[in-house]
């Protein structure tokens, strides 16, 4: 993505080597609490994914609409803590480099399984594996080399993720599981999500062929998600690399890491790539959880995750809280007005996202909200986008209070160069 360069001048009168951070709240306290929240949110992501794993195993053992429904509900529940972790991306390189294993999107679903070619097509100039169909084929050609896919294992799927260096070749993670549970959403911007039948996994009454291999894929990709989440949870342990790397940074660099994650997710990623782009194009393929129509929830919890980091508080799936020193604490002791403005803006963003959730629960899915001609839905989505952009700009203004000079947030053509959207430029 393009970078949005954010720079602010720091007054030498206010910030000199002799001025330390607040006496009652230290940056070390903030970093420790930030790390504690990271550990908790990834641990909750792991726990809910393990519940998904049990539901998937039960579904595969006894394929029915009921067991499929239970697995779908478990997938949606697993998204709640994970989406709140995304504010740890961008600033923490270890998270950003790992994220593609668990939450990469959009994906070319024809890589994985059968598709409706009337809507999907049969080939892509950008992706030779556009309709490779791992489930149907025991041998694949990847970058001119034959790959043995007879045994669908965690190792095979991991090796095929972003095969041929094509980002849309997403073979693993939440969205691969989502596709396997829901199937394609063929409704466009009309009501309805994916409608995969449980019999796609019933070896005794198989629909669409390869039910045994489809079940093997679903089991392997779910187990791989568990492995990946367990690994990241460990990175935020007391001696984990993510935590120790952060704490080893100099004070300003470490605080920049936190702000970078918040600002980049708010601006380029969520406001831009996940929301404004789809709204501009009125394209249901640009919604984040496009097979399940769960997008409004994912956007809500992304915004909640940014707020969590700022105020230093996270509510766990069991209802308990992790809370402590925060950026809010640091800023409030130096400039109460700036902290108040930021807290109000984060709350407004979450409130605007709640409108999307309420609309979704009321029967109008996110892909319908962004549909061309839906003035009410478009307005609700735009309000959330505007609030995300506003909170990124307020974070920019807060940089001098933290003693920071400049930070580069992720950008998006949809926000920075809208004239390029939908063109080859």
Structural category: mainly alpha
> What's the shape?
globular
Rg for CA atoms: 22 Å
Strand order of the largest sheet: 1-6
- SSE series: EHHHHEEHHHHHHEEHHHHEH
* Quantity of strands, as a count: 6
If you average the pLDDT, what whole number results? 93
- Beta-strand share of residues: 5-15%
Q: Helicity range of the residues?
A: 40-55%
User: Helix count, per DSSP?
Assistant: 15
Features:
globular; two-stranded antiparallel ribbon; mainly alpha; 54% helix; 425 residues; single chain; disordered N terminus
Summarize the structure in words.
The chain is mainly α. It is 54% helix and 6% strand. The chain is built from 15 helices and 6 strands. The strands form 3 sheets. It has a two-stranded antiparallel sheet with strand order 1-6. A hairpin with a 5-residue loop joins strand 4 (313-315) and strand 5. Helix 2 packs parallel to helix 10 (295-311). It is globular. The chain starts with a strand and ends in a 9-residue tail after the last helix.
Offer a quick outline of the entry:
The protein has 425 residues and is mostly helical.
What are the SSEs and their pairings?
Layout: E1 3-7, H1 27-61, H2 65-83, H3 93-99, H4 117-120, E2 139-142, E3 145-148, H5 154-160, H6 174-182, H7 211-235, H8 241-248, H9 251-281, H10 295-311, E4 313-315, E5 321-323, H11 327-334, H12 336-361, H13 366-369, H14 375-398, E6 406-410, H15 413-416
Antiparallel strand pairs: 1-6, 2-3, 4-5
């Amino acid at each position: 993505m393009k970078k949005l360069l954010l720079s602010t001048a720091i007054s030498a009168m206010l910030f000199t080597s002799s001025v330390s951070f607040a006496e009652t709240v230290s940056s070390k306290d903030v970093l420790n609490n930030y790390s504690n929240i990271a550990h908790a949110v990834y641990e909750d992501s792991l726990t809910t994914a393990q519940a998904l794993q049990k539901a998937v195993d039960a579904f595969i053992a006894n394929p029915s609409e009921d067991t499929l429904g239970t697995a779908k509900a478990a997938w949606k529940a697993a998204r709640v803590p994970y989406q709140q972790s995304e504010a740890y991306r961008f600033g923490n390189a270890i998270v950003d480099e790992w994220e593609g294993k668990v939450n990469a999107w959009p994906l070319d679903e024809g890589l994985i399984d059968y598709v409706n070619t009337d809507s999907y097509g049969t080939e892509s100039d950008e992706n030779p594996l556009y309709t490779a169909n791992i489930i149907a084929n025991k041998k694949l050609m990847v970058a001119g080399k034959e790959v043995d896919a007879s045994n669908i294992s965690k190792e095979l799927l991991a090796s095929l993720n972003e095969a041929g260096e094509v980002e849309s070749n997403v073979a693993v993670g939440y969205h691969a599981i989502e596709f396997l549970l829901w199937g394609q959403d063929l409704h466009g911007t009309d009501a309805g999500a994916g409608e995969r039948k449980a019999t796609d996994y019933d070896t005794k009454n198989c629909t669409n062929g390869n039910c045994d291999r489809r079940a093997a894929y679903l089991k392997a990709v779910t187990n791989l998600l568990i492995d990946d989440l367990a690994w990241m949870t460990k990175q935020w342990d007391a001696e984990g690399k993510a935590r120790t790397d952060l704490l080893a940074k100099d004070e300003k660099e470490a605080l920049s890491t936190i702000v970078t994650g918040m600002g980049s997710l708010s601006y380029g990623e969520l406001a831009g790539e996940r929301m404004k782009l789809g709204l501009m194009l009125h394209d249901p393929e640009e919604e984040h959880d496009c097979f399940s129509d769960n997008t409004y929830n994912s956007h809500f919890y992304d915004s909640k995750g940014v707020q969590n980091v700022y105020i230093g508080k996270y509510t766990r799936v069991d209802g308990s809280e992790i809370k402590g020193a925060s950026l809010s604490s640091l800023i409030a002791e130096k400039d109460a007005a700036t902290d108040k403005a930021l807290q109000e803006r984060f709350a407004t963003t979450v409130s605007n996202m709640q409108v999307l959730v309420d609309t979704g629960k009321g029967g109008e899915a996110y892909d319908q909200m962004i549909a061309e001609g839906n003035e009410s839905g478009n307005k609700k989505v735009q309000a959330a986008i505007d609030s995300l952009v506003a909170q990124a700009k307020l974070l920019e203004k807060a940089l001098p209070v933290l003693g920071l000079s400049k930070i580069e947030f992720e950008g998006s053509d949809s926000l920075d160069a809208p004239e390029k959207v939908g063109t080859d430029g």
